[in-house]
Amino acid sequence: MPNAKHAQRLAIVLFAALALVACSKENTEASAENPGHASGEHGSSSSAGLPKGHIAKGEELAKAKGQATGQSCIDCHGADGNAPIDDTYPKLGGQYGDYLAHALQAYRSGDRQHALMSPQAANLSDQDISDLAAYFGSRPSQLRDLHNVHR
Q1: In this structure, what are the phi and psi dihedrals at residue 47, rounded to the nearest 5 degrees?
Q2: What does each C-alpha distance from 129 to 10, 76, 122, 138 come to in angstroms?
Q3: 22-51 pLDDT, tens digit each
Q4: Over the stretch 58-106, which tens digit does the pLDDT of each residue have?
Q5: Which residues contact 118 (CB under 8 A, 6 or more apart)?
Q6: pTM of the entire structure?
Q7: Which of 11, 27, 29, 42 has its CA at 20 to 30 Å from residue 110's CA atom?
Q8: How large is the average pLDDT for residues 122-134?
Q9: CA–CA gap between residue 137 and residue 119 (Å, rounded)
Q10: Distance from CA of residue 51 to its chain's centroid?
Q11: For residue 27, what are the CA distances in angstroms to 48, 114, 151?
């Protein structure tokens, strides 16, 4: 009997391990299908609570001049978000869409302040923010991990 209990426990552990691997693979595939979304695990388009973003609409918005500053997103960040006009401006291309959406929401609400970004974001709708985040999140990334960079 002790062998039967041991075999039963081993079977349960193996089943649980296989289930975890399967779930992990599904989340990876969902993430790949949803460019710029950090995980794809929530079944929604954004952890920021926003509607699904549309890349083509985001590209149009990125090229449009804002009323507040007369600048467009690409004027400062580059066509794919990878060529900022100043080293202090972030590269947006390939960044997580959720991060971009949260940042734009913070500029819009005043929780985050920047002389150009705050007025640019002030009149963006939730859909605009989702579209811009989807566009820049879908662009090629030139971001790099700074984990092991030493001064």
Answers
A1: -75, -10
A2: 49, 17, 11, 14
A3: 554 444 344 444 444 443 333 445 566 778
A4: 999 999 998 888 999 999 999 899 999 998 899 999 999 999 999 999 9
A5: 107, 110, 112
A6: 0.67
A7: 42
A8: 94
A9: 22
A10: 13
A11: 18, 35, 36
With a cut of 50, say whether residue 16 has pLDDT above it: yes
Q: What is the 3-state secondary structure (H, E, C) of the chain?
A: CHHHHHHHHHHHHHHHHHHHHHHHHHHHHHHHHCCCCCCCCCCCCCCCCCCCCCHHHHHHHHHCCCCCCCCCHHHHHCCCCCCCCCCCCCCCCCCCHHHHHHHHHHHHHCCCCCCCHHHHHHCCCHHHHHHHHHHHHHCCCCCCCCCCCCC
Instruction: List the structure tokens of 138.
Output: 């879908």
